């Protein structure tokens, strides 16, 4: 008498499929954890989170906004016209950090005439915030930006303390902490800080 033929068995194949799905899931979870860890390290070493104080940078950055500052950015390059930089005025360690937009770079000639800023004789407008100024301050007469200095203004120029003021003046590169990079909070202002040319 012949033995009964065994039917096809899918048990072994099903186990292999389940095992490979679990391995793929674990691999994906590991990649997510690794990406998160790398992100945390990058933020810790190259970014800082600061809170904007005052209305000088409205509407780009509002008072109380939490901003990520790229501390590494200017180690490789120099600030460009239109960047929003973070600095302590005159290197004063007791002052809070200021966030202002770069208008003049080394070698530029800056003047405020009839409420508007001119860079090297040309009208300079960012198209952001309040362009016209009631106060010319130090820039009433044409001034030249030094070799390691930057002339900065707030986007909300009539409430901004900036390079027009003798208390701040031109910002030295050594006093720059980093580049305002990303508004992390609140959600209605969430996103990259706009640079202009």
UniProtKB/TrEMBL annotation:
InterPro entries: LexA/Signal_pep-like_sf, Pept_S26A_signal_pept_1, Pept_S26A_signal_pept_1_CS, Peptidase_S26. Its EC number is 3.4.21.89. The keyword Hydrolase applies. It is found in: Cell membrane; Membrane. GO terms for molecular function: signal peptidase activity. It is a single-pass type II membrane protein. Keywords: Hydrolase, Membrane, Protease, Transmembrane, Transmembrane helix. The chain crosses the membrane at residues 21-47. This is Signal peptidase I. The lineage of its organism: Bacteria, Bacillati, Bacillota, Clostridia, Lachnospirales. Residues 29-183 form the Peptidase S26 domain. Belongs to the peptidase S26 family. It comes from the Bacteria. It catalyses: Cleavage of hydrophobic, N-terminal signal or leader sequences from secreted and periplasmic proteins. It is an enzyme of class 3 (hydrolase). The keyword Magnesium does not apply. Pfam families: Peptidase_S26 (PF10502). It comes from Hominiventricola aquisgranensis.
């Amino acid at each position: 008498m012949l033995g009964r033929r065994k039917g096809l068995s899918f048990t072994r194949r099903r186990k292999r499929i389940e095992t490979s799905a679990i391995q793929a899931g674990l691999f994906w979870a590991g990649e997510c954890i690794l990406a998160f860890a790398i992100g945390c390290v990058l933020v810790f070493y190259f970014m800082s989170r600061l809170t904007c104080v005052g209305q000088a940078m409205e509407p780009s950055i509002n008072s109380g906004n939490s901003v990520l500052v790229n501390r590494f950015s200017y180690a490789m390059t120099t600030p460009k016209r239109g960047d929003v930089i973070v600095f302590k005025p005159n290197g004063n360690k007791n002052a809070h950090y200021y966030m202002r937009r770069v208008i003049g770079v080394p070698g530029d000639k800056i003047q405020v005439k009839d409420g508007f800023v001119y860079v090297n004789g040309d009208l300079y407008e960012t198209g952001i915030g309040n362009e016209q100024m009631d106060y010319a301050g130090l820039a009433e007469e044409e001034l030249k930006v030094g070799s390691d200095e930057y002339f900065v203004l707030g986007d909300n120029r009539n409430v901004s303390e900036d390079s027009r003021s003798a208390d701040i003046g031109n910002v030295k590169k050594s006093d720059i902490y980093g580049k305002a990079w990303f508004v992390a909070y609140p959600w209605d202002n969430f996103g990259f800080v706009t640079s202009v040319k």
